[in-house]
Design brief:
Elements: E1 10-14, H1 19-30, E2 34-39, H2 42-52, E3 56-60, H3 66-80, E4 85-88, H4 103-129, E5 133-138, H5 151-171, E6 175-182, H6 196-207, H7 213-224, E7 234-237
Parallel strand pairs: 1-2, 1-4, 2-3, 4-5, 5-6, 6-7
Helix pairs in contact: 1-7, 3-4, 4-5
Bound molecules: NADP nicotinamide-adenine-dinucleotide phosphate (NAP).
The site of NADP nicotinamide-adenine-dinucleotide phosphate has 30 residues, from helix 1 and helix 4.
Keywords: Oxidoreductase
GO molecular function: oxidoreductase activity, acting on the CH-OH group of donors, NAD or NADP as acceptor
Family: Belongs to the short-chain dehydrogenases/reductases (SDR) family.
């Protein structure tokens, strides 16, 4: 609860239009949070906000656009009284063999997965620090390991991991920093892969994905529900049958 006003806590979720972000919004709203849903696809987040009802607002924002994030933060301050939780979830996984043909994908992944999370955090930091907050960074198993064809995606997630550990030390004890590192989760993530042979191969694995986004959302909600003196800083979780 936001102590001063005795109001439910406020969670800002980037990439709330699908997958893990949408599931996290549903889970936190069910736990009594007010939620700000950020994404580029306005129709999707408006539909989700309408589904959730009271205490949910949709804000169109591209995490590569700092001005849009600043405007979003202003709306969260004005309409919800400020953010207690920021979930840096927006991401893209544009896998493929390393080549110049993929160079636009590399820039996009770095700008969304790494710089987008950094920018959203610096924009919302004052709100998180006001009264104590939580920062949840959605990394990946790819933030702990790397394999052929995922080099730049892994680089963005390794970057998120290193940055998170530094922030954890800077922000303690008032802002708890948590890394969530999932393996394969059944979402639309692979559908955006531009290298066609890689997309088809990766999609086959996702077609039989056993872990659902709701299960990751449940872990995030559990982490946030721990008493303030306990910080869960890192959770690595895979489908039980995933090797790497
Ligand atoms: N699914 C997995 O197997 C898996 C495993 C490990 C980690 N992850 C991580 O989990 C996070 C969520 O992915 P997901 O699996 O739920 O995939 P998803 O369903 O494709 O969701 C990705 C979300 O990111 C948003 N997004 C993409 N580019 C954006 C931008 N420039 N600005 C704002 N939002 C943007 C998308 O919204 P709009 O397109 O509407 O903007 C969408 O809501 C990512 O960080 C991903 O790396 C996923």
């Amino acid at each position: 609860m936001t102590d001063s006003q005795n109001l439910p806590r406020v969670a800002v979720i980037t990439g709330a239009s699908s997958g893990i972000g949408a599931a996290t919004a549903r889970a936190l709203h069910a736990d009594g949070y007010r939620v700000a849903l950020l994404a580029r696809r306005l129709g999707r987040i408006e539909d989700l906000a309408a589904e959730l009802g009271d205490g949910a607002i949709a804000i169109q924002a591209d995490v590569t656009d700092r001005d849009a994030l600043v405007a979003a933060a202003q709306r969260v301050q004005d309409e919800l009284g400020g953010a207690d939780v920021l979930v840096n979830n927006a991401g893209t996984m544009l896998l493929g063999p390393f080549s110049s043909e993929q160079r636009a994908d590399y820039r996009n992944m770095i700008e969304v997965n790494l710089l987008g999370a950094i920018t959203a955090t610096e924009v919302f930091l004052d709100q998180l620090e006001d009264g104590g907050g939580d920062l949840i960074n959605i990394s990946s198993v790819a933030g702990r390991t790397a394999r052929a064809t995922n080099g730049v995606y892994a680089a963005t997630k390794w970057g998120v991991n290193g940055w998170s550990e530094s922030l954890r030390q800077e922000l303690l004890p008032d802002v708890r920093v948590t890394l969530i590192e999932p393996g394969v989760v059944d979402t639309e993530l692979p559908t955006h892969i531009t290298h066609e042979a890689t997309r088809q191969a990766v999609q086959q694995g996702y077609d039989v994905a056993t872990v659902k986004p709701e299960e990751i959302a449940e872990v995030i909600a559990f982490t946030l529900a721990r008493p303030r003196h306990l910080a869960i800083n890192e959770i690595l979780l895979r489908p039980a049958g995933q090797l790497g």
